[in-house]
Specification:
Helices cover 50% and strands 11% of the residues. The protein is of the alpha/beta class. Helix 1 runs antiparallel to helix 15, helix 8 runs parallel beside helix 10 and helix 16 packs antiparallel against helix 17. The N terminus is likely disordered. The protein binds hypoxanthine and zinc ion.
């Protein structure tokens, strides 16, 4: 999935590249449907007899790969993403998708993976939520047993479908919440024309079930959406949040409350939120003491850029050293939904890699 160089910035030094490859990682912001490659999309469409739209981009795998290079905004991506999701029918399809992602993530150095999925995108096509969760949880259990990874499943509701459907859909998952298979909810899809505050009853219901909570906000929408996510919905995690950088009082609030932003710089470039990774507000987050992690979002739609490539793109853009990467490691680990014992183990392992980097810098004047 990842290589030493990136299309999203300069080439990192081979030393910092190897450090980033070895750094234990948490992935917090990954839509499993967003890992569906064009080749698997066509394979599953044929297997499951799914008719793809009669549009030029669906004429061939090559045409679709080309199309994915030219999204104009979030909505143009979402239109393709929901068509892609429609080829997933059986529990085996979901298991295969998740297992392929988890093995690639393992190669990228992921120790802990939180997988979001869009139950409504499947339920509205007549695919039962039980089937989706059965397939995904087979893969996550296997990753825990065979890859020594910890995992979570995040039940992500689509805000453009409204509060009532979100409430109804969450209630369908009660059994999976009770047995611990679903650990949190998210909120995704467009921010345009959405009143975030209207989802308060959904977040209250999730909290009453003992679930963790997060929501996409401030990806294409204004800082107010991030304020509503933290103040009204009560989240201590925000997916994306890049537009928070426009509001110094909000940055201060995120820092004070140690609210994690799960940032996806390559996704932001591909969806024209920013022009280059170097335009990402990560340095502002660092300066303000806002915790953030780096994530891949929908890698199959964004040049197959897995999490390691996202880390490398950030390094290409900002040429950071061990101090800055320690902030990212600490933020990622502390903001993760994993147990404290694993957090301690992971932080210790990050410290070993970063201390090596620090001492190599001193010894060889290697720079970053
Ligand atoms: N933003 C909003 N909705 C989404 C995304 C995203 O990045 N990925 C999948 N659904
Ligand atoms: Zn996302």
């Amino acid at each position: 999935m990842s290589s030493g160089s990136s299309d999203h910035g300069n080439v990192t030094t081979s030393h910092s590249q190897s450090i980033l490859a070895r750094l234990p990682k948490c992935e917090h912001h990954l839509h499993i449907e967003g890992t569906l490659s064009p080749s698997l999309l066509f394979e599953l469409a044929a297997k499951n007899d799914v008719d793809l739209p009669d549009r030029p981009e669906f004429a061939s795998q090559e045409a679709l790969e080309e199309y994915y290079k030219h999204f104009t905004d979030l909505q143009s991506f979402l239109d393709a993403y929901y068509v892609g999701s429609s080829v997933l029918i059986t529990a085996d399809d979901f298991e295969r998708l998740a297992w392929d992602y988890l093995t690639a993530a393992k190669r990228d150095g992921v120790w802990h993976a939180e997988l979001s999925f869009d139950p409504q995108a499947h339920h509205r096509r007549g695919i039962s939520i039980d089937v989706v969760i059965e397939g995904l949880s087979r893969a996550t259990k296997r990753a825990e047993a065979e890859l020594n990874m910890s995992t979570c499943l995040i039940f992500c509701l689509m805000r453009d479908l409204g509060l009532n459907l979100a409430l109804k859909t969450l209630r369908l998952a009660e059994e999976h919440i009770r047995n611990g298979t679903i650990v949190g909810i998210g909120l995704d899809s467009t921010e345009v024309g959405i009143d975030f505050k209207s989802f308060k009853p959904l977040y209250d219901l999730a909290l009453s079930y003992g679930l963790r909570i997060t929501a996409h906000a401030g990806e294409e929408g204004p800082p107010q959406n991030v304020w509503d996510t933290v103040d009204v919905l009560g989240c201590r995690r925000v997916d994306h949040g890049v537009h928070a950088a426009e509001d110094p009082a909000l940055l201060q609030h995120l820092a004070d409350t140690r609210t994690l932003l799960t940032v996806c710089p390559i996704s932001n470039v591909c969806l024209k939120v920013i022009e280059h990774v170097r335009d990402s507000p990560l340095p502002q987050f660092l300066a303000a003491g806002v915790p953030f992690s780096i994530n891949s979002d929908d890698p199959a739609y964004f040049g197959a850029s897995g999490i390691l490539e996202c880390y490398q793109a950030v390094q290409n853009a900002f040429n950071w050293g061990p101090e800055e990467w320690l902030w990212i490691c600490r933020s990622s680990i502390e903001g993760s939904w994993m147990d404290d014992e694993k957090k301690d183990k992971m932080l210790a392992a990050c410290n070993v890699v970063l201390a090596e980097w620090e001492s190599a810098r001193g010894r060889n004047n290697l720079g970053r």
